[in-house]
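Quality-control log, excerpt.
Job 1 of 2 completed; input and output follow.
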Amino acid sequence: MKLSSVDFYLDWPVSIKLKNLRKFVIGYLEKKGDVIRWSIVDIQNSSDSFGTKKLKIKAVLSN
């Protein structure tokens, strides 16, 4: 088993409600590998007019 650490920004669209955010993030991470652990380390307001936010995600995945 190979573990990899990833650190990236993910857009959080307004259409995704807070109670569905976990499913949204895990769904994105599962495309990259098996999720061991993950966390949101920062949230920034985007400069676009749609009101999206940027989430900074740190995760450990196994391939």
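Job 2 of 2 completed; input and output follow.
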Amino acid sequence: MMVQWYVRANCGVQRVMRRLRKEQQGLTMVEYGVAAAFLVLFLVGALMIVGPQLKNWITVTMDRIVNGRGA
């Protein structure tokens, strides 16, 4: 009886390990991580280019609103 459970458990573990090796899900997670890193780099670059212009626009708009000249 115990031998039968051991054999079943062992076969199940081997089947799961074979499936994981075949699917290579760990590699997929690394690919998602690399894609996320490139997205962050792109966003930081875009903000560095647009940032000073956006800051200037916000400052001018706030000054106009505070001084009563509207947006």
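Post-run check on job 2. The chain has a mean pLDDT of 81.
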